[in-house]
Amino acid sequence: MSATPRTIPLLSGVSEIIDNYDGFVVDLWGVMHDGLEAFPDAVTALQKIRKAGKRIVILSNAPRRAESVTVRNEELGIARDLADAVLSSGEVTWRNLKERTLPFYQKLGKNAFLIGPERDLGMKEGLDFNFVDDIGGADFIMLTGIWDPEDKVERYDYLLKPALERKLPMVCANPDLEVIRGGKRELCAGAVAHHYEDMGGEVQYHGKPYQDIYKECMKLVGIKDGSRVLAVGDSLRTDITGANAAGIHGLFIAGGIHSDDLNGLNSPTDMLKLVSLCNRYDQYPVAAMPIFKW
C-alpha cells in the first residue's frame, strides 16, 4: 500500500491526487496546526476536499476526549464542520478504561495516578476509578502528557522508580514522542512511556500507529476499500507506519515533526534525505508534500 524506495512522488498540492480517493484521514499537529494556530493552506485544503464530496476523519494522538479536541480545533481556526468525525487517542484510551473489555484493563485495580497537565484532567471524568495523589497508593498509572514544556523524561523518575518496584502498569494516552509547538520541540507522553518501558515497566498504548484506533477510524470513514483512503500525516513513526499497517495510503507532510531532517523538500538533495529517512523507518508514503495544501 506504500510507494517503493526512491519512487516517492513530490506533490505541489493534494488536488493532484484528489480523484484517487474517497476518504481522508487527517492528522492535526504538524499538518493542520502547530499547537498555537491553524495553517491557512491546510484549512483551505480541507474546505476544498469537503467541497469535492470526500469523507474526512480527523485522527489525532491528542490525549483528550474527541469533543475536547474538536473544541480546541475551533479555537485554533479549524471549524467543526470541516470533518465528518474526530477521533483521538485520548478518546480510545478513555473508552478502554470505561469498558474494561481487554484483559489488560480487567486486571487493573481501582486506584489510578494521573501524570499529565491540567488541560488533560477531563480524561478523569466519567471513569469509575479513584484518582490518588500518592504513587504509593496507586494500582496503575494513567499517562496523558508532561507537566512542563521544558521537561526531560528523567524528571518523572521519582514516580516511575517506585512504580516499577511495585510493578504498576501504565496506560499511555498519547504514543507521540514529541511535538513542535510554535516552532519549539517538547516531549509528549510517549517519551515518558518508552522511558518506563526501558526501565522494565509494562505500558498499554492507544493511538497511532496502533491498529485499534485505525479500526475505529475506518468505521467512521465508512469506506471498505483501503486503497481509496488517504491518511495525511507528518510522522513516519506514527502516521505513515499506522496507515501502511491499516492497508490505506499515506501522504507524508515534510514540514512537521521531521522538518529539521528534510528542509521542506526544496531540492533533490532533500528528496534523497526523505528516501534515507524512509529507509531508516522502513516505511514509505505514496507521496510527499512540504506542507498540506490544495
UniProtKB/TrEMBL annotation:
Xref: CDD domains: HAD_like
InterPro entries: HAD-like_sf (IPR036412), HAD-SF_hydro_IIA (IPR006357), HAD-SF_hydro_IIA_hyp3 (IPR006356), HAD_sf (IPR023214)
Cellular component GO terms held in the UniProt record: cytoplasm
Cleavable signal peptide: none
Listed SUPFAM superfamilies: HAD-like (SSF56784)
One MF term in the entry's GO annotations: phosphatase activity
Protein's UniProt name: HAD family hydrolase
